[in-house]
Structure formats: structure tokens, C-alpha cells
Design a protein that fits this description.
Strand content: 35-45%
Shape: globular
Number of strands: 9
CATH topology: Nuclear Transport Factor 2, Chain: A
Oligomer: single chain
Length: 152
Amino acid sequence: MLKIKSVLMIVLFLFIASTSITTAGEHPADHPAGEQSAVTTETIAKAIDAHVKNESNQKGGYFIVEDRVAKKTLSLKLDKIHRERLSAIDKGHYFACVDFTNEDGKKYDIDFFLKDKKGKLKVTETMVHKEEGKERYNWVKKGDFWVKKPVE
């Protein structure tokens, strides 16, 4: 199952272009930037906000993320959706960086991946990018696409 997810992630990044929807801000080089599309940064932010609120309402007020590296379940509260790091990966695929605080007070940067499904943006995957500011991976451009690279 993990191997299938890895292959799907690689396929997803094969079509990444080199221009961000917006200018880089707090996270200038540690996330992929995609090409501009008809979907706006506000549309992406609203889709993520709605997804987090919907999931949180079903989980006692917390957004639940499985931290595969630390092998624990995170119970998160939304802090900030980084509108300066919302990007189109390719036609119909989008990326966003979102900050959360865990119930124990630790800060997490969660990467969200979205897909346009019949005119509606749906979150397809979330991954822990940073814990307390410490990166677990970075994005590196290889030719015309971006790949995830573990932090050494």
C-alpha cells in the first residue's frame, strides 16, 4: 500500500511546472511551486479550511493526522493556511502548506494535496512536513518535475 502511494506521489509530481501561483513567503524553497491556473489561492485556502473544519467537527474539534514517522496520532488545531505557498502542481492538482498546533503544544507544518474533482477541490493526502520547525523532507526540482528528498 505504501509503495502504491509512493508511485502515485511520483506520478503526481511528474507534471509540476516551475512558476508559483503567488510569490514565495515564509516557506520560499521548501515546497514545490506549480503553474498558475484558473483556481485561485483563495479557492484552495477555502477548500482546505472547509476540509479541516468538517473533519474537526467529526473528531471532537481536532484535525486528526497520522504521523507515520513518529508512529503516533496527532490531534491538531488549525493555526494558519499559508496563502503564499498555495500552488498548482499541474492541471487539476494543487498543493498547500498549513500550520497546526498539536494538543500537546507542539507546532506542525502539514502539507496538503488537493485534486479538482468535477469542479470541486478535494483533499487527497496530508503529510507531516515539519515538527517544531524541523523538516522531515524537502522538495528538489529534477528536470521538469519535483521530487521529495529526505532531510539528511
